[in-house]
Amino acid sequence: MLTSVDTELIRVLADPLRMQIVTLLAQETLCTTHLVEETGARQTNLSNHLRVLREAGVVETEPCGRFIYYRLRPDVIASLAGQFAELAETARATAAADTKRACP
Question: Which of 30, 45, 53, 90 could bridge to 59 as Cys pair (CB 3.0-4.6 Å)?
Answer without folding.
Answer: 53
